[in-house]
Design a protein that fits this description.
Helix content is 32%, strand content 17%. Strands 3-2-1-4-5 form a five-stranded parallel sheet. It has a five-stranded parallel sheet with strand order 7-6-8-9-10, sandwiched between helices. Helix 3 (98-104) links the parallel strand 4 and strand 5. It has two domains: 8-147, 3-Layer(aba) Sandwich (Rossmann fold); 161-325, Glycogen Phosphorylase B (Rossmann fold, 3-Layer(aba) Sandwich). It has twelve helices and ten strands. It has 326 residues and is of the alpha/beta class.
């Protein structure tokens, strides 16, 4: 008889922002394919989970129940919450911190998986050759141990036809669209806005149509960009784009781009999920850890070209990478 794999699984994370969730999604898809009858409970300790919010559509059929901001794992003491107590075939602690590991071991699990202390408390350990440097590889390692065999991440991006059709109407076939994503979660991760404008002007002169993807904090820049780059498009701000609140439209739009330049950000991960080539600009953050599995991603790291200062990466350096991609 074929081993059906674990039937009841709990995965514990600190929280899921868009970028983190997109990096974990391929292994979740692979895990579900390998264990179609498993019931997966997703628990966050400190932060919300976009799997219960803006990416809920993508987690449908992969995660059965989400309990967000539970506080569980953040304190040595406190009772196990009744709503996700009980017995599990597998409990996966995704963080390497000892406290979370020891607290989660109190759950009733037939198999406990944790990377803490080099998997000292884990029922199973990966081989020395198992890659774990990136978020994708690390999470795939944990879910492979939970499953019982090595998983191959599935980077399929299933989008509802409505998003694909809307994207096609906003960015119709013909022009070569060039994506630009100037936002990021903090100022230290943002290449200077004026350099994005200079880049947009340069790529427009080379026959591309600049397409800007702006987050809520950059929405007030639309008029300024239009004045400086008249050819620029803002498809998320038209026909229910940003107003729809769905990052899935952003992914559908990204599928229609020839190339993008982005900061290391959630918006950048959305563009990468579109599957087209992306140039990502890194400052102090880890380019290996946050590499996307969805596309050909070309890294420009400030430590290599600008003495570690993101703002000092030149427009010419980015254009040289654009030319190299073709």
């Amino acid at each position: 008889m074929t081993d059906p794999g674990p039937q009841k699984v709990l995965v514990h994370v600190t929280g899921d922002r868009i970028g983190d969730a997109l990096l974990k999604l391929p292994s979740l898809r692979a895990f579900r394919a390998a264990t179609p009858n498993a019931h997966v409970t997703w628990v966050t300790a400190r932060r919300p989970s976009v799997f219960a919010g803006r990416l809920k559509e993508l987690s449908a059929g992969l995660i059965d129940k989400v309990y967000a901001e539970t506080g569980f794992g953040l304190s040595w003491f406190g009772a196990i919450p009744a709503h996700f107590g009980g017995r599990y075939d597998v409990v996966v602690s995704t963080e390497a911190r000892l406290r979370e590991t020891l607290v989660l071991r109190r759950l009733n699990a037939a198999k406990f998986i944790s990377p803490a202390a080099s998997f000292l408390f884990s029922a199973e350990r990966p081989s020395a050759a198992t890659p774990q440097d990136s978020v994708v590889d690390h999470f795939n390692c944990l879910m492979s141990l939970a499953c019982g065999h090595t998983l191959i991440p599935d980077t399929t991006m299933p989008l509802k036809p409505a998003y694909v059709e809307l994207a096609a109407s906003l960015l119709p076939s013909g022009p070569r669209y060039f994506g630009l994503c100037p936002g990021a979660g903090g100022q230290s991760k943002r290449w200077p806005f004026e350099k994005f404008i200079a880049l947009a002007d340069q790529i427009a002169s080379r026959g591309f149509t600049p397409v800007f993807f702006l987050g809520p904090e950059e929405a007030d820049l639309v008029d300024s960009i239009r004045a400086q780059v008249p050819q620029a498009l803002f498809p998320e701000f038209a026909s229910g784009g940003t107003d729809s609140g769905s990052p899935l439209l952003t992914i559908a739009l990204a599928q229609r781009l020839a190339l993008s330049v982005t900061n290391d950000s959630g918006g950048g991960h959305l563009l990468a999920a579109g599957g087209q080539p992306v140039i990502t600009l890194f400052g102090h953050t880890n380019s290996v850890k946050f590499r996307s599995p969805y596309c050909d991603q070309f890294i420009i790291h400030a430590r290599d070209v600008a003495n570690g200062v993101l703002a000092d990466i030149s427009v010419d350096t980015v254009l040289a990478q654009v030319n190299a991609i073709g």
